Each structure stands twice: as structure tokens, then as C-alpha cells.
Amino acid sequence: MKKIMACLLAVLLTVPFFAGCESKTVINVYNVGDYIDEEVISMFEEEYPGIKVNYETFYTNEEMYIKVKNNSTAYDVVFPSDYMVERMIEENMLNKINYDNIPNFKNIGEQYQKLDYDPQGEYSVPYMWGTMGILYNKDMVDEKDMDSWKAMYDDKYKGDIFMLDSERDMISITLKSLGYSMNSYDDAELEKAKNALIAQKPLVKAYCGDEVKDKMIANEGAMTIAWSGDAFYCMDLNKSLRYSVPKEGSNLWFDNMVIPNTSKHQKEAELFIDFMCRPEIAKKNAEYIGYSTANEEGRKLLADEVKNNELRYPDLSKLDNMEIFTYNSELSEKYSKLWQSVKVK
Amino acid sequence: MYKKYLSYPHLMWMLIFVLVPIVIIFLYSINVLSTNGTTGFSFENYKNFFDITYMKIFGYSLWIAFLSTVFCLGFGYPVAYILAKRERERLAKGKKSSTMFMLFVMPMWMNMMLRTYSWLTILESNGLLNTLLGFFGLPQVNILYTTAAVVLGMVYDFIPFMILPVYSVLVKIDPSINEAAEDLGASPIKVFFKVTIPMSLPGVVSGITMVFLPSITTFYISNIFGGGQIMLVGNLIEQQFLVANNWNFGSAIAIVMMVLMFLSMKIMNLFNKGNKQMAMF
Question: In angstroms, what separates the C-alpha of B223 from chain A's closest C-alpha?
Fold first, then answer.
């Protein structure tokens, strides 16, 4: 009898693991890794003692999409990029945001609102934005070549090129270097992109994730494709690094805050988003991450050499050959297949 | 006197965390989304796996796993042998068991990711190794992001799994058996090949299983050391889940791998007949 009791107790001991109880309201925030000044979270929790933020991070939009779709955690605020917002809207995965609860939305620059991925401006609040370009080490390359994506496919730099292990970005850049649209899913154009990527494979040193930043800083390679924000971060730490947006045009991207329909705490989620839109918070995040904030009032608080920097805050009206990624299920499927056939070659 | 109910928590554990997940994976693998949006059951995912591109990946994984196992055995066996020999001599003299063995197992207590990442610092083109070579005016090596680097990573990560079982078998061999062979006129070399090796086979077999099986399904070693260019079955499965969002195909590959591993363990255990207690360790 004693032993049966012992067994029961042992089983009971495991129960608390399944039933973590909390008296506070917990909101689940799901963001890209290293994409917030984490102090901001504690500041939020201090100001709203009834709310606890459970903060998780992801590396790619696709990874985030799968987790939100499978509803493994009821996320309340997630940070997808433009095309992913479009996809999530299309698949009814987002709740409409009540902008009356986000008075600080007025701080967001008008030029970043109601873009093609959320044309009515109902679902998303822009967070950071930027361009995509080549981050290169001026001591290891011929700087003349760096105004074109072609450099990334040039035999001259064999073994010194880093690519990103991210299908959408790599295929789009390749399309652009061939003179096509970044959002093309025309079979003939994709076939050419695929061949270019396969031909490029022997030149590539590695397909990296976030660690590419450390590698560029440590002079491990001559060039990589980089998002503007990451590029500035690297340039701060290694003075030989330069960033260029190639003349063929490039990607213009926007990361946003949205509320997925898995959310059980819409009100608290909106409070969090509003908090993030405060100018001083936006400034704090922009300073920490080094990306360009979509918060116009926040930008004005930044140091002069940052807020007036042409590379960091280019005039959107002057960038005419830039494209924002669009979502389309056919495109997504084709890209996925293409990238796999490149990787297995 | 055999108290069955004591094993019930364990059985429940196995049921919930081993059996149920396997069943779920299997269900995923035979679930096929047809074009009109309905789901049906079919073995199409399995058929897809036997496509030439995937077979190439599979063959390549087998090759890399084979290489790692051979190197692990080649390096691990002598180490295990020397350690076991020292240990037996110490015990014969009535000393306490040595700490040498502990030192060999200690790296296993460190986080695997951390250990793997630290190799990057060593192998990078401006890394420790090349700095050292450069200091002595020797030519630079660039093996990071190649097959050699992946094999190196696997051997490094998995070699304790070879040393451990071989050692634990060797250390239990009664020294008097070797002495008997020598008394009967066998040379030390002959004793080694005719007595020690056959008697250590059970350890070798479980060592091989414990190195071969994880190295065929690993994905992070190939990711980190291969720079995303080397595609093994493990990477393929990871990609199906995290990138391609094709859980059904990923599950099918996982099931195929599981069946293969089960079979290879069965085959391996054939060598172990009569030595049942040695099957794992």
C-alpha cells in the first residue's frame, strides 16, 4: 500500500509541469531574434504591473508562420515582414487592430502606412524598415564592382562570398540580378534564377544565418547579402566594411507588429503595441538594433549623424526601382521547390 | 515477488512520450493533401522519398556516417584499449580506479552546441589554427565548410560513444585469459587479434550503433560545419518541417529512417548473441 502511495505521489509531482498557474495576464510576444532592446519589455511590465510578457524569438518569417499557424502557443503580438503580413491576412490569421487603442500610432511616418501588403491599414503597425544590399569588405574587393548584384555571382570572388540560408531573399536577389522582378514566379525566369544559383554554389563559402554578421566583422569573407540594419551594425564594428544598394534595384522591406487571431488578450496586445510606438521607446529600440525605425517622431530623437544618414533613412520617393515582397501561394510553393533543388545539388 | 505496478509510471511515460509521438508522425506521413483541398491517406510521401535527388542525399549521408564511424573506431579503440589496460593494472595493484577515464568522458558534460561552435573559432580562415600555422610560417588550411569538416565534427562529437562501450567491455576481460593464451605460446600480437578483439566485439558493435545512428540523422553538425552547403537526411527532415512546411513528407522520411535504424540495430545485435548483457554498454 505504501508503495502504491509512493507511485501516486510521484505521478502527482509531475502534474505542476502541465498546469503552470499565473494570476497575471500573460501576453506572448514573438519577435525576430535580437530585434528589441529587452529593457523595453521590463519597462512595459513595470508600467503595467498586471501584465507579464512572455518573449520568444524566431529566425525566419517562415518559421514564425508555421508556429503561429499550428497554434502551439497563443501568440498575442508577432513581428512579421511585409509579404508575411500579406500572407497572414489572406489566410485570415490576423485580428483587425483597433487603432483607437493605439494613440501613439500617429508617430508612425505616413510614408510607411497603408502599403501594398496591408492596403487599408487595418492589421499592421510598421516597426522597422530598410533596404537590402551588398555588405562588402573594401580591402578584399574591387569597389567598382559593388554597385551591381552581378558581383555576387562573379568567379573573381570565389570562396569569399557568403549567402543567406533564406529562400525568399536569395531567389529574389538572383531574379533582380538577372533583370527580372523580385516577385516574379514566371517559370522561365525562375529556371534562369535556379541555374544562376546552382552555378554560384561553388563560389559560395557558406549559406549562413544570423552568424554571417560575426563572420563579416571577423574578415572571414569579402561580401554578403545583408539587410541595411545588419550592415550598419557590422560597419560600426569593422571600419573596412561598406554597404551598397545595387543599381539594378533592390528590396524595400518593412517589419510590422500584428495581432494573430490566436490572441486571447487583444487589449493587452494593443497596449503593448502602443507602448512600442512611443517615440522614446522607438528611439531606444532603433538605437539598440541599429535598424531604421518607422516611427517618425522616434527618428527625430536620434543622433544627427544617424537620422540624416542617406543610407539609413533614404528618401522613399527617390527610390524608384525598389520593390516590396508580395505574397502569393503559387510563388511561395515554387520558391520553396527551387531553393530545395539548389540546396540538394 | 515481482512487483509489476512499480513499472507503471515508466510505462505511462513511454506511452505518452515515445509511442504516441511515433504514431502521430506516422499519421502525418500517410496524410496527403490532394489538389481539391481534402486530405486522404496514401503512401505517396514514401514514394516521393525514393526519388533520385533524395536517394543521392541518402547515399551521401550513409557515406559520411560510415566515414565518421570508421574514424571513431580507429581512434576510439586504441584509446579504450590503453585506458582499460591501465585500469586493470591499477586494480591488480589494489589502487583506486583512475581519473583518466573521467577526463575522456568529461567533454560530454558540456553543451553539445557550445562544443561544436567552438570548433568554428579554431577552423575559421583567420581562426586559431591558421594563426598558429601562420606563426610558424606553415601553409594555411581551409577545411571549414567542407565534407572533411563535417566528418571531423562528427568524430569529435560522437567519439565518446565509441570509447565508452568498448572500454567497459575491455575492462571486464579477465587478465588470466590473456595469460593463458600467452602460456600456450601465442605472441602478444596474436593474443590481441585472437583473444582481445573477439572478446571486445560486443562493445565494438554497440559502439558502432551508437556512433552510426546519430551521425546519419544529425543536422546541426552538418549545418554548422558544412556552412549550409552539405545536405544530409537530417537537414532534409529539418527543412521539410521548418522551411518547406511539408510536415507530411518530413514525417515520411523520419519513419523510413526509423525503420532503417531498427533494422540495422537488429542486424548489429546478431553479432551480440550470447552476450545479451552487453547489447547496450
Answer: 9
Please indicate whether, in this complex, the C-beta atoms of B229 and A201 are within 8 angstroms of each other: yes
Distance, in angstroms, between B12 CA and closest chain A CA?
A: 10
Which residue is it, cell 543536422? Answer: B219
Which residues have a Cβ under 8 Å from the Cβ of B39 and sit 6 or more positions away? B31, B32, B33
Chain A CB within 8 Å of residue B243 CB: yes
Close Cβ partners of A122 (under 8 Å, ≥ 6 residues apart): A96, A97
Which tens digits make up the pLDDT trace of A267-326?
A: 999 999 999 999 999 999 999 988 999 999 999 999 998 888 888 898 888 777 899 999
Q: What are the Cα distances from residue B275, in Å, to A145, B270, B271, B281?
A: 67, 10, 9, 11
Predicted-complex ipTM score = 0.72
Q: How far apart are CA A253 and CA A83, in angstroms?
A: 9
CATH number of the domain at B52-278, out of 3.40.50.2300, 2.60.40.1120, 1.10.3720.10, 1.20.140.10? 1.10.3720.10
Answer yes or no: are the C-beta atoms of B226 and B145 closer than 8 Å. Answer: yes
Within 10 A of A236 (CB to CB), how many other CB atoms are there? 11
According to DSSP, the residues that pair with A164 across neighbouring strands are A208
